[in-house]
């Protein structure tokens, strides 16, 4: 557990108490004989990172193996990186400020020139980041429970134990309510995804608009409106009250948010994303799907729809040649707890892990609506979808098939509550060692092997979901055949098969015995129907059929990304590399592992690039084929 906690330490020495002047004096005298003792105690190795901006710039010189010549371009990754302010840690890791990193893989040079990868990092300097750094305290509410305190003379000051110490217990209810009641300006941390497209690099957070970054330096340029109208900062993604004069509308209304999980269409090269805003009067949600061209981020087509009975935006989406599908998990919002300041937005969510799930299916905005009409699927068996690897329309049946990581039916009542505290703590997650088969339901067959635990809440599976557009029914939902007992997350495919029947998916793998654990490797899963199902594997039995590479003892694997080889055959899924960031708790250092997909994963990486410091356990990212960042593939 101690090693896993270290994977969630704040980046560099950004928990230091030094002043900017001391840092500047230190960096200017690094090569002098004298040393500042205070800085030495802060670990000189980590001071390659500016503790105030998260900036680091250097060439990677520690390399195991050989860097492939046909891996050329720029890798961007995003995730929580600065876990608090002035010694006070956030209440939940997903409330941390975003940290974007950049790896530039240059063109191969002459035989006498050593090819080196350049590394750059920087915090996303959102409005909240800047304001809180200046005030040296939390000023805005976080999505997952971080919040300002009430009057300190009345309720006391925070203990400020350090950004790498356990967050302090919640202040008293009266303190939380006094500071946060009706303050609905939730902090945009820009910590979830980063994509490169249309000459822009954008850092996303799913409950607000993205921030634009300089593609090379990663300096924050400001809010990007992704082709839509400008909105004032601090507004909730809630539409105005119909019929009410504008001067009487609450100031907090009128904002909008963009999903953190847009998709790339491999055929058209379009970026497909969507914005959303809640409708305050009827509990519905307005969504606007937009397709963008890589030439200047130009809007190609846009279409708005209303999701009836949906008060909360889904996390991810499915893109096929003709359809966009949004799966709506069974969540509900306790508005009183949120508006009163008693709880944060995510804390106010109630989860019903045994309720049926719905899916809304829409024609892509570039399609003729008279040919492809929207429809709703109301009979998806209980599950909880998280991240979709890909989806496609079956040529034989016309059905929509989608693969995703998710949780089986469970009795959890809170959303991501097990991620709270310092980091996801598996000792606090109840573990049940019994598996059960669910009987087939009317109108379709389910083979759903489950166990009452998962990664972070229940055992995380890769699931297969099939929907028949003609009957508007879910005709199949099962653990993806061949991946039984594989606990995994963040599944991805080769970007050229994002909307096709892929042969392989790759995932961050926790274990292959159906247990709940930290991510310890990478798995290759066969998803084209040729893998043999193993429904009778018992709890604790290994799935020996899966190709897995374990990154090593006391190491933790980050999300994978599949990158096509330069000048490779896009129709061959093996013509690519899998890239994954790995944290080594023994060395307290992170590395980027590069796997050649022509080989089995279990044969190990062909190259490992060692950073000079440790990186926090991140989230999503993208790879641009060149520095013009005109387009990219992402996870």
Describe the structure concisely:
The protein has 635 residues and is mainly beta.
How is the secondary structure organized here?
Blueprint: H1 2-6, H2 20-28, H3 37-40, E1 56-59, E2 62-65, E3 73-82, E4 84-85, E5 88-89, E6 97-105, E7 118-123, H4 127-135, H5 152-155, H6 173-180, E8 193-197, E9 200-204, E10 211-213, E11 220-223, E12 257-258, E13 263-264, E14 271-279, E15 284-293, E16 298-307, E17 318-319, E18 323-328, E19 331-333, H7 335-339, E20 349-351, E21 357-363, E22 375-380, E23 384-393, E24 400-407, E25 435-437, E26 445-447, E27 449-451, E28 461-468, E29 473-479, E30 487-492, E31 504-511, E32 521-526, E33 547-550, E34 555-564, E35 576-584, E36 589-596, E37 607-610, E38 621-624, E39 632-634
Parallel strand pairs: 26-29
Antiparallel strand pairs: 1-7, 2-37, 3-6, 3-38, 4-5, 6-7, 8-9, 9-10, 10-11, 12-14, 13-14, 14-15, 15-16, 17-18, 18-21, 19-20, 21-22, 23-24, 24-28, 25-27, 28-29, 30-31, 31-32, 32-33, 34-35, 35-36, 36-37, 38-39
């Amino acid at each position: 557990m101690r090693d896993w906690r270290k994977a969630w330490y704040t980046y560099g020495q950004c928990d230091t108490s030094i002043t900017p002047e001391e840092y500047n004096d230190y960096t200017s005298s690094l090569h002098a004989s004298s040393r500042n003792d205070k800085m030495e105690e802060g670990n000189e190795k980590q001071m390659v990172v500016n503790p105030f901006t998260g900036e680091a710039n250097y060439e990677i010189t520690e390399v195991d193996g050989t860097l492939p010549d046909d891996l050329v371009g720029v890798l961007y990754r995003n995730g929580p990186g600065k876990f608090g302010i002035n010694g006070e840690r956030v209440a939940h890791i997903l409330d941390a400020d975003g940290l974007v990193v950049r790896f530039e893989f240059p063109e191969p040079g002459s035989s006498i020139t050593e090819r080196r990868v350049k590394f750059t990092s920087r915090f996303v300097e959102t409005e909240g980041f800047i304001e809180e750094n200046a005030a040296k305290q939390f000023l805005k509410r976080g999505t997952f429970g971080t919040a300002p305190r009430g009057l300190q003379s009345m309720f006391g000051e925070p203990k400020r134990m350090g950004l790498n110490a356990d967050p302090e217990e919640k202040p008293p209810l009266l303190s939380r309510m006094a500071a946060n009641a009706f303050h609905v300006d939730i902090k945009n941390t820009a910590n979830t995804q980063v994509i490169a497209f249309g000459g822009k690099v954008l850092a996303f957070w799913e409950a607000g608009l993205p921030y634009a970054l300089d593609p090379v330096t990663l300096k924050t340029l400001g809010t990007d409106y992704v082709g839509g109208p400008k909105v004032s900062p601090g507004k909730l993604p809630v539409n105005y009250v119909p019929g009410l004069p504008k001067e009487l509308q609450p100031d907090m209304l009128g904002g909008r948010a963009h999903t953190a999980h847009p998709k790339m269409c491999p055929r058209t090269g379009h970026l497909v994303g969507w914005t959303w805003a809640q409708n305050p009067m009827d509990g519905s949600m307005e969504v606007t799907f937009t397709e963008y061209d890589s030439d200047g981020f130009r809007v190609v087509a846009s279409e708005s729809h209303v999701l009836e009975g949906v008060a909360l935006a889904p996390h991810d989406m499915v893109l096929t040649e003709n359809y966009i599908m949004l799966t709506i998990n069974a969540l509900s919002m306790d508005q009183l707890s949120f508006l009163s300041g008693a709880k944060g937005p995510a804390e106010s969510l109630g989860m019903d892990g045994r309720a049926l799930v719905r899916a809304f299916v829409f024609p892509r905005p570039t399609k003729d609506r008279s040919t492809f009409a929207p429809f709703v699927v109301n009979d998806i068996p209980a599950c909880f979808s998280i991240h979709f690897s890909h989806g496609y329309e079956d040529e034989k049946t016309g059905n929509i098939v989608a693969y995703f990581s998710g949780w089986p039916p469970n009795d959890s009542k809170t959303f991501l509550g097990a991620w709270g505290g310092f980091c996801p703590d598996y000792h606090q997650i109840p573990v049940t060692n019994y598996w059960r088969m669910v009987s087939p339901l009317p109108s379709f067959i389910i083979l759903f092997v489950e166990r009452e635990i998962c990664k972070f809440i229940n055992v995380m599976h890769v699931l297969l979901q099939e929907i028949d557009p003609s009957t508007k029914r879910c005709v199949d939902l099962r653990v993806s055949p061949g991946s039984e007992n594989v606990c995994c997350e963040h599944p991805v495919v080769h970007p050229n098969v994002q909307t096709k029947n892929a042969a392989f998916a790759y995932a961050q793998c926790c274990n292959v015995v159906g247990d709940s654990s930290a991510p310890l490797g990478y798995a290759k899963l066969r998803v084209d129907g040729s893998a043999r199902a193993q429904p009778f594997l018992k709890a604790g039995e290994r799935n020996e059929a899966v190709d897995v590479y374990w990154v090593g003892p006391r190491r933790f694997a980050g999300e994978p990304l599949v990158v096509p080889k330069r000048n490779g055959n896009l129709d061959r899924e093996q013509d690519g590399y899998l890239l994954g960031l790995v944290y080594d708790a023994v060395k307290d250092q992170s590395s980027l592992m590069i796997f050649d997909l022509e080989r089995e994963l279990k044969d190990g990486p062909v190259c490992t690039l060692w950073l000079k410091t440790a990186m926090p356990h991140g989230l999503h990212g993208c790879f641009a084929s060149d520095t013009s960042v005109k387009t990219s593939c992402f996870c």
